[in-house]
Structures are given as C-alpha cells and as structure tokens.
C-alpha cells in the first residue's frame, strides 16, 4: 500500500547573533557569532528538525518553539559537522526523546574529528554549551521520509568545512542549505583555498540547478526572507573574495574591500573573512 502523502510546510527559527569571549579585534565588529537558523519541516502529524543550534539557552528556546507546532518530532537532521549547528542536540533530545538523530557518515566523521573545534566553542561560550553531545546515527540512504514525502540529502562536499550537506524538499521546492549558502551574513571564507572555493561554488551551482522557490541558509540576517537569490549572492561573494585573495592585498585592505562591497551584511567578524591566523 502506498503511504498517504500529505501537504508539507516549514518554519524557520533564527537564534540571534550572540557575543562570545575573545579579545576585541583591531578591525571588524566586536566578537559575536552569526545569527543561526534551525528549520522545522512538518506535515499534518510529524516533523523533521534541521540543525539543533549550539547553546543551552538557544536550544531551550528552540525546543519550546518546536513544541508550539504540536507535531511529533520524528527526526533531527544535522547538515554538517560544525558545533554551532548541533551542540544544542541534548537539550532538544531531552524534550523529544523519541526523535531519531541522523546525519551523513561524512558529517558524523567530521563531528568525531572536530572535538578540538568544540573545545574552542566551549572556551568562547563558557558554561553555555552542554557537556556531552551524542553522535547522530549515520544515514545509509540519502533520503528521509516525512508523511510519505521525500526529503533528499544533497552531498555538497567541501564548502565551509569538509563533508557538508544540504536538504532538498521537492514538495516545497525548498532547500535547507546548511552553511553552503549564507543570507546577508559575511561568510566563513577565511579558511578557504582556491580549490575549496571552486568546490564550494560548484555546490552552489548544483543547488541553483534545482530551481528552488526558497532557500533557508544556516546563517541569515533575521530581517531577510528565504529567497533563492542567496545562492547567486553567495557565489558572487566567494568569487569576489577569491579575486582579492589572488591579488594578495594586505589583510586590512581585504577586510575593508569585503565590507565595502557588502555594506548591509551582518557579522563583520574579522576571523570570518581573514581566517584562522586572525581567529580571536
Ligand atoms: Zn555555521
């Protein structure tokens, strides 16, 4: 018997930009973490949550918001192995203990290998992150199901880190991009290379080829909607940044050129743009 398909919809929770412990940078904004999203995709009865955020406070607010939707949370999906998107998982699981937590095998591997990054996040957000975070179950199929509708996992390779993914929900013409695309937020490009930027741009082109009606980015200016134009904007940002890097101009000029080109974009943190060498 064919499972009954039901109409899906989605809703987006944005955790506001939040300060963190670090020396005040010489250029750019005071240390703060980009506003970060979590997306709930739901039908008449069930729901899938994408990325359970980072701090205990924001994951608690997220769990309250999920509960307001009155759906059974069947699944939590994690798009990539950066702790700002998943360290809130135990808080969400406390509220929804029956939810299955899944990610690709690549993401699980990045989470296992990324313990050092988690330690640095715990130093930046002291006392604000759960002590222990369970690992997701690695997916054996690139497809989730929600009330008979497919949610497709797209392997996007090395974008802002290795083994990243996005989700495609054909019934909604929706892409939940993770950190493959950013929405009016300065992008985490400081750690990129010419090769990784080319791979990142190719991933953006593959998402654009799906002609989505909406794209929810992992980081967004909360005043913005979820237009598919973010894919082209992110591509343009990577290309312009690559041109400046190729020109080997000094860091200060590079920073100024990026914020001049994107004056309305939030999170002008120097470590995002200039890289690990200048990470506070
Ligand atoms: Zn992120």
TrEMBL record:
Protein name: MBL fold metallo-hydrolase
Organism of provenance: Dactylosporangium sucinum
Domain Metallo-beta-lactamase: 35-219
Superkingdom, natural source: Bacteria
PANTHER family: METALLO-BETA-LACTAMASE DOMAIN-CONTAINING, METALLO-BETA-LACTAMASE SUPERFAMILY PROTEIN
């Amino acid at each position: 018997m064919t499972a009954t398909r039901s109409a899906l919809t989605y809703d987006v929770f944005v955790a506001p930009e939040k300060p963190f412990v670090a020396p005040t940078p010489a250029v750019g904004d005071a240390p703060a973490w980009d506003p970060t999203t979590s997306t709930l995709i739901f039908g008449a009865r069930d729901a899938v949550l994408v990325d359970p955020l980072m701090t205990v406070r924001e994951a608690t607010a997220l769990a309250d918001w999920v509960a307001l939707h009155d759906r059974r949370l069947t699944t939590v999906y994690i798009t990539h192995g950066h702790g700002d998107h998943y360290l809130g998982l135990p808080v969400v699981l406390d509220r929804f203990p029956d939810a299955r937590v899944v990610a690709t095998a690549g993401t699980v591997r990045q989470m296992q290998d990324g313990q050092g990054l988690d330690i640095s996040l715990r130093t930046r957000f002291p006392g604000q992150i759960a002590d222990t975070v369970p690992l997701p179950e690695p997916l054996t199929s690139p497809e989730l199901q929600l009330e008979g509708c497919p949610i497709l996992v797209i392997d996007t390779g090395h974008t802002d880190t290795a083994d990243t993914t996005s989700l495609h929900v054909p019934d909604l013409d929706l892409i939940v991009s993770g950190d493959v695309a950013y929405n009016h937020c300065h992008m985490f490009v400081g750690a990129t290379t010419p090769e990784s930027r080319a791979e990142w741009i190719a991933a953006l082109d593959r998402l654009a080829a799906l002609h989505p009606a909406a794209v929810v980015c992992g980081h967004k200016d909360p005043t913005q909607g979820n237009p598919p134009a973010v894919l082209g904007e992110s591509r343009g940002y990577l290309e312009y940044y690559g041109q400046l890097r190729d020109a080997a101009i000094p860091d200060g000029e590079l920073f100024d050129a990026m914020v001049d080109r994107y004056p309305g974009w939030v999170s002008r943190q120097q470590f995002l743009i200039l890289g690990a060498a200048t990470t506070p």
